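Exercise 7.
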Amino acid sequence: MAENTSFRNIVVDEIIASPIEKGDSVFAFISALAKNAGVINISKKRINLVMSVDSYAVAMYLVEALKSVYPTEFEISCDEIKSGSKKGERAFSVAVQTGFTKQVLLDACLISDDTPGIELDVPVKFAREYTSAIAYLRGLFLASGGIYVPSLEGEEKKDGYHFEYRLEDEETAMSVSTLLASLGVLSKINERGKMWLVYIKDKEEIVKVLNVMGLGECVLALRRIIDERETANALNRAVICETANLDKTYEAASKHLLAIGIIEDSVGLETLPPALQDTARCRMEFQQASYEQMAEILGVSKSCLNHRLRKLVEIAESIQNGTNED
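Solution. The predicted structure, written as tokens, is:
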């Protein structure tokens, strides 16, 4: 995975590397893009649908999808975004000719001859058929999707896993969340500014939605990231635990060595019982040894060793307090 390559770009690349959808699925794909990345320009009696995406490759893929069902040419233009969070970035627009705009909107189930206005829900025709539903989710991702993972360098330095669709109204968000649920993917909805987010933060659910969308390479890539991160976290926990244990060992050893030094300087180690002499000399020789290692060297249990070391500390304290008895 190249440095500074976002995981979103990886997902987009796999989507546009796929063959163009067939049958109702291509209309479902176009529907998601037209609804969530399109505007309808009306001038006198002329209506014109324009869909804007963030790369020329995606624009070309959209044009291929349109040309697979409409026998005409589609113009691609490039403009600089003037405002908002993407100010300064380029947007690539695909314009549908006036003579085909109404037919595209009808085929995409965004308008009907019986009902005025634009359909906000995911069209039932596409939601109830599996391959069309998947095509819709793919188109929706190209229009308004985002995904972030914690292990990428450069532009992506987010701490957690996050998948989202950014939508313009609550009704659409509810409909998309319902569609995901029908495919076995759990999502949440949240309002952010003027947008509505349908989002997933659980990494296993994100793996699931990529799998549902038929993005096998992305699933494998995300699995590798999850496995590598969990391995790294496990190693970090082990290092922290080991460091804490070492700190405790060194703190205890320092306490024992200080006590032994007090005894040696005041009354001499030879005044101690043989078992305590052996323990004191062992600690002096193996200053960084753990309780387990010292107990093995002395051939005693940890409980016995702990008792002896406590006794050495008590003797040193009694010497300092002037209460030592020979």
